[in-house]
Here is the input.
Amino acid sequence: MMTWNYRVFKEKNGEYIIREVHYDANGSIVACTERAVEPFGESLKELAKDIEWFKEALTLPVLTLADIPQPKEHKRKRDRRKNMSREQLEEELGVAKPTVARRAPRQPSGAKRVLATSGKKRN
Here is the structure.
């Protein structure tokens, strides 16, 4: 189960900010928010509770971004040239739906259907 709390960070420029820090089930830090966070609440009671959690952050050791594990680089990107469409996959698996021939739209009664014209007038 992952947990989180607020922690104070000392930035490279010497300023202090508060970020959310996330921990794994063993209590090891796994990530933090990119930017500083602000107290928030949908009511005064919720805002007061959030401010209390901010105060708790002041009692914990100060962190720097160097204390946060960096995401691992992907060794190589996936070769997407081998991707196939859904239709290709269905056909390969033998579950493709048979295509249904479409009928020509029905002409209103009394309308003549013209297939081709030669350009000559009929007498």
The mean pLDDT is 82. The CA atoms of residues 45 and 51 lie 10 Å apart. The first helix runs from residue 44 to 57.
